[in-house]
Amino acid sequence: MMIIILRVVTPIVNNQKEVFTIGEIADMVGGEVIGDTEIEISGAAGIKEADQKQITFVENAKILNWAEESEAAAIIVPENITDSNKTVVCVKNPRLAYAIVSAVFVPNVFYKSGKAPSAVISESAEIGKDVSIHPQVVIEEDVVIGDNSILAPGVFVGKGSRIGSNTIIHPNVVIEYKSIIGSNVIIHGGTVIGSDGYGFVSTEDGHQKIPQTGNVIIEDDVEIGANVTIDRGTSGPTVIGEGTKIDNLVQIAHNVRIGPECLLIAQVGIAGSTEIGKRVILAGKTGVVGHIKIADNTIVAAMSIITKSTSPGVFYSGNPAQNHKAELKEQAALRKLPVLIRTIKEMEKRIKILESELKNEA
Known about the structure:
Layout: E1 20-21, H1 22-29, E2 32-34, E3 40-41, E4 43-44, E5 54-57, H2 64-69, E6 74-78, E7 87-91, H3 94-105, E8 114-115, E9 120-121, E10 126-127, E11 132-133, E12 138-139, E13 144-145, E14 150-151, E15 156-157, E16 162-163, E17 168-169, E18 174-175, E19 180-181, E20 186-187, E21 192-195, E22 200-203, E23 206-209, E24 215-218, E25 223-224, E26 229-231, E27 237-240, E28 245-246, E29 251-252, E30 257-258, E31 263-264, E32 269-270, E33 275-276, E34 281-282, E35 287-288, E36 293-294, E37 299-300, E38 305-306, E39 315-318, E40 321-323, H4 324-335, H5 337-361
Parallel strand pairs: 4-5, 5-6, 6-7, 8-11, 9-12, 10-13, 11-14, 12-15, 13-16, 14-17, 15-18, 16-19, 17-20, 18-21, 19-24, 20-25, 21-26, 24-27, 25-28, 26-29, 27-30, 28-31, 29-32, 30-33, 31-34, 32-35, 33-36, 34-37, 35-38, 37-39
Antiparallel strand pairs: 1-3, 2-7, 22-23, 39-40
């Protein structure tokens, strides 16, 4: 099973153009135009939604006719498609090209350079150039924020934290003390970075809290969805690797280390001190126990439970998770159980009849 991870970094553009020619769009994606290079494009959309000022895309010739019948002004197509009734931009990877083109038309809704009067900013904080600080933002002592970053309404940044350049923090995100966040990072609303890890010593008298004195490090080009919780380390950091993308409602426990370019889908839960390798994919509701290693390029199916370390490049599924092929065989066997049970009961009845007949003959 091959999974293609598209890594597209979208910088914050403050003075954004609203219209591009097809020629300019082709230059963005390294494509070749067949048709009118001067057509003006003001947006990108899917085949059904595109209008006469927008560009769309197809990944193969099977759906080209749908795009040709749409209102789209032009189509991004694979390199093997050169004949169309519309202007086309031929590229190696149409989906990647579409992602790049779409990004230039996305408005920076939170860009508003300057500091809102209601923001509370420590005098010891270092704020870079062209930073947007919205109402009700709180920035505590010794915080450093890089150029062109955006802090939307209600963001809290704790003492000693670092935020890189071109990073967007959406409303009501909490960044606890000494957290380190890289450049070109996106963190969506309601997420908490650096909350205490879940650590206690249990005795007859109750549960004694273990102080969580580490921090969280989020490297460059990471995107974190809404209502994600990433706990600070007990001692030492919890780390999210460069280029990793995390969906909504994910829980990452203390001292977890996630490698570069991983994909964590909604409601994944990872227990403490687990190490995740490079380009690992954990599908929705996957659970991972603590103190194990998930090898590079591991893929885990939805609702699986990983209870032990994995091997590189293997597709796992089930509870407890195992090689997906073995899991499919087990599931197939389980579906046969009702028939097998009926067969066994019928055989038992026949055996009893045979035993009774043998006794009568004796």
